């Protein structure tokens, strides 16, 4: 039981979504345990892991839920979006299909998640440059037109994984003062608000959005 | 001792068969003395050995190693048909039986000098009546399978305690209605099922060019992408593959997209199926799984391939392929899982038989929980809520605690139910669990939920000292690696007991309501 993890100022629930096989589980294991496996088992239902990071002197604990990618699961996974304040929408840079489906995943978030959810588009498997089927420009333009932040990562060679998670967490933190992080806005899937969640709107920090985080 | 015996009243039933001669007893492999064939003599099947990415030759790879050179067949003599084998098997059982009962052989069996057949001297009834006295489970099962028409309930009750590997395949086939109980038609009916599967495969093979070529052309030219045909397809009845028209271009265009999509998902999941277990890296095993999952999906569009089905298929493939191996001694499940090749131990025809058995067994098992796999998965949701009710009843403190720390059953039990605990227990224990689940009429569909309850309650004390995160992390990776049969037996009997108790309670509750 890792007691060191217990002290934190903020707890954010983040979901990982995207087509099957794009590398969601490996992004999660890379970020939370620094592990990667080429042949990890497929995710059935949801899996959960946490990690705390420092951001502007505050400890932010990320509670990350990894979901199954097969579309036939969507009906059931939608229940997992409730209470999520961030979503990493992952596609595989070598699979055009997985990028085309981003639109569908966005719609799903729109239908099931909080309207203020922070979404980051993540093009994973950037180590496979020679097989690249989705250009950085295309993805970047798409992200911009949809108001998403965007990053390319590789869970395999550990590039940008840390950055992706830190960036979305700090963005959630910065928006925290304005948006849906009031006390008690917990979901079915977050721990009992009164006992373990501490989500205080950062009262004085509302104006410091430009401050470099992490 | 040999002519009198404890007679269990419930064991006296239907007219008694007369003779015991020449009966095949499961696959009594230990009585065989075929030597393994050196690999140098055998021409290798063409197939991939590494997990393959979706590649242009993908469609041809699909058929790899289903149809292989018949030249190898002579290397694998047919196993069961020979009469002398059967006699050896009967003698083996007799020996076991007599050791068990301490009686001289002549007291129970006649060895006819005329035809060499062994017949039963003791009235059949008495032999049957002693079945409950037999302490060896394996022997008990052997005797049951010798019966002309084994009683299904007794078969179930016997397998509930665990089946030995030499009988398991046959017993599972019988309990899953693939092989009839009636001895007279067992062989022919099983053969018919296997032929039917081969015919399906042949049709699928003939149709492959219609859909695979079409799809590739489409992908290459116009960037039309495959998406969501499955999601958009309303639940449909079974497809009759033989009624598909090879000239129906429009139909094939549509089918092509859906089928390719299914195949891709299967292809994606195969390397992720027990990746740490050598046998699932064996090309023949992967090919079997690919074909079964694909054929199942196109025959059952309403509940076609869903992640997790691959896991449900694995115990079946293991049991049926292991059953068909030509080896000098029985291979334990543990040893089978560690094999890096099956090629030297099994011929094409036997591999196909195993594949057919696994296909029908898979179809049957999925049909038992089919509401788990139709759109929106109402079966899973219903069972999760049932699981929660059971835990509330049998361990109210745990249920209350989980609620208190914010753990929901949906967060961890989804996978337990979707994969029938494949991910939560060591593989060989799952096989044992399935013996028991098949040993109940509604084992897979209902007892399994109680089993999940018994599993979580095993960790009750630990869980009640944990916070939300620790609890979820424990529940999604239960520390069962070190478990053995006795742990599983414990949760199985616990589950069974709760099931009976809660059933009785609900009956008496209904009774009270009627009275009032």
Automatic annotation (TrEMBL), chain A:
Gene Ontology cellular-component annotations: endomembrane system
Keywords recorded for this protein, A-Z: GTP-binding, Lipoprotein, Membrane, Nucleotide-binding, Prenylation
Cellular localisation: Endomembrane system
Entry annotated with the keyword Cytoplasm: no
This protein's record includes keyword Cell membrane: no
Membrane topology: Lipid-anchor
MF terms in GO: GTP binding; GTPase activity
Entries under InterPro entries matching the protein: P-loop_NTPase (IPR027417), Rab_GTPases_membrane_traffic (IPR050209), Small_GTP-bd (IPR005225), Small_GTPase (IPR001806)
Pfam families: Ras
CDD domains, A to Z: Rab11_like (cd01868)
Family (UniProt): Belongs to the small GTPase superfamily. Rab family.
Listed name of the protein: Ras-related protein Rab-11A
Species in which this protein is naturally found: Gracilariopsis chorda
UniProtKB/TrEMBL annotation, chain B:
UniProt xrefs under SUPFAM superfamilies: Ypt/Rab-GAP domain of gyp1p
Protein name from the UniProt record: GTPase-activating protein gyp1
GO molecular function annotation: GTPase activator activity
InterPro entries xref list: Rab-GAP-TBC_dom, Rab-GAP_TBC_sf
Annotated Pfam families: RabGAP-TBC
Source organism (scientific name): Gracilariopsis chorda
Transmembrane segments: none
Residue ranges of coiled coil: none
Residue stretches making up the Rab-GAP TBC domain: 162-441
């Amino acid at each position: 039981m890792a007691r060191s993890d217990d002290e934190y100022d903020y707890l954010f629930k983040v979901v990982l979504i995207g087509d099957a096989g794009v590398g969601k589980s490996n992004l999660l294991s890379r970020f939370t345990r620094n592990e990667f496996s080429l042949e990890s088992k497929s995710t059935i239902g949801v899996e959960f892991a946490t990690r705390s990071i420092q951001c502007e002197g505050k400890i932010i604990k990320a509670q990350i839920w990894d979901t199954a990618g097969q579309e036939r699961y969507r009906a059931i996974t939608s229940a997992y979006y409730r209470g999520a304040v961030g979503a990493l929408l992952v596609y595989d840079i070598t699979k055009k299909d997985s990028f085309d489906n981003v639109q569908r995943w966005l719609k799903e978030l729109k239908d099931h998640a909080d309207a203020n959810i922070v979404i980051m588009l993540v093009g994973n498997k950037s180590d496979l440059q020679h097989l690249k089927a989705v250009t950085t420009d295309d993805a970047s333009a798409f992200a911009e037109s949809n108001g998403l932040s965007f990053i390319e990562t590789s869970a395999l060679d550990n590039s940008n994984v840390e950055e992706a998670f830190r960036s979305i967490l700090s963005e959630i933190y910065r928006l925290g003062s304005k948006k849906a992080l009031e006390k008690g806005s917990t979901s079915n899937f977050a721990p009992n608000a009164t006992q373990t969640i501490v989500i205080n709107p950062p009262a004085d920090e509302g104006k410091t959005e430009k401050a470099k985080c992490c | 001792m040999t002519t009198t015996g404890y007679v269990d009243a419930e064991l006296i039933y239907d007219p008694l068969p007369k003779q015991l001669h020449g009966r095949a007893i499961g696959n009594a492999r230990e009585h065989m003395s075929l030597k393994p064939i050196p690999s140098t003599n055998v021409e290798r099947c063409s197939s991939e050995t590494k997990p393959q990415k979706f590649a242009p030759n993908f469609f041809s790879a699909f058929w790899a190693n289903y149809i292989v050179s018949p030249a190898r067949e002579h290397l694998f003599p047919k196993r069961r048909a020979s009469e002398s084998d059967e006699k050896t098997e009967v003698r083996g059982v007799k020996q076991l039986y007599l050791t068990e009962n301490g009686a001289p052989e002549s007291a129970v069996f006649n060895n006819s000098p005329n035809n060499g057949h062994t017949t039963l001297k003791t009235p059949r009834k008495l032999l049957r009546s002693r079945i409950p006295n037999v302490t060896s489970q394996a022997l008990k099962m052997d005797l049951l399978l010798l019966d002309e028409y084994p009683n299904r309930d007794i078969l179930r009750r016997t397998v509930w305690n665990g089946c030995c590997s030499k009988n398991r395949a046959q017993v599972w086939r019988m309990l899953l209605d693939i092989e009839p109980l009636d001895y007279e038609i067992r062989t022919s009916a099983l053969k018919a099922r296997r032929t039917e599967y081969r015919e399906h495969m042949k049709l699928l093979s003939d149709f492959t060019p219609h859909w695979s070529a079409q799809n590739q052309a489409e992908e290459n030219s116009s960037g039309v992408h495959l998406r969501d045909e499955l999601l958009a397809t309303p639940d449909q009845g079974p497809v009759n593959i033989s009624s598909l028209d090879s000239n129906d271009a429009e139909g094939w265009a549509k089918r092509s997209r859906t089928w390719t999509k299914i195949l891709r998902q299967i292809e994606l999941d195969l390397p992720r199926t027990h990746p740490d277990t050598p046998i699932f890296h064996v090309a023949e095993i992967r090919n079997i799984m690919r074909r079964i999952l694909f054929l199942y999906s196109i025959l059952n569009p309403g509940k076609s391939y869903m992640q997790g089905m691959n896991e449900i298929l694995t115990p079946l493939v293991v049991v049926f392929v292991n059953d068909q191996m030509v080896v000098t001694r029985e291979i334990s499940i543990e040893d089978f899982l560690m094999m890096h090749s099956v090629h030297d131990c099994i011929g094409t025809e036997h591999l196909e038989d195993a594949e057919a058995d696994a296909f029908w067994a898979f179809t049957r098992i999925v049909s038992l929980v089919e509401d788990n796999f139709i759109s929106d998965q109402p079966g899973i949701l219903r069972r999760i809520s049932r699981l929660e009710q059971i835990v509330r009843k049998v361990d109210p403190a745990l249920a209350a605690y989980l609620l208190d720390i914010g753990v929901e059953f949906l967060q961890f039990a989804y996978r337990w139910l979707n994969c029938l605990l494949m991910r939560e227990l060591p593989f060989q224990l799952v096989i044992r669990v399935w013996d028991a689940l098949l040993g109940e009429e509604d084992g897979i569909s209902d007892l399994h939920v109680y089993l999940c309850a018994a599993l979580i309650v095993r960790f009750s004390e630990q869980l009640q000292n944990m916070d939300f995160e620790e609890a979820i992390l424990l529940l999604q990776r239960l520390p069962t690696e070190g478990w053995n049969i006795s742990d599983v037996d414990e949760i199985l009997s616990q589950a069974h007991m709760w099931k009976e108790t809660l059933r009785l309670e609900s009956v008496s509750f209904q009774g009270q309501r009627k009275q009032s």
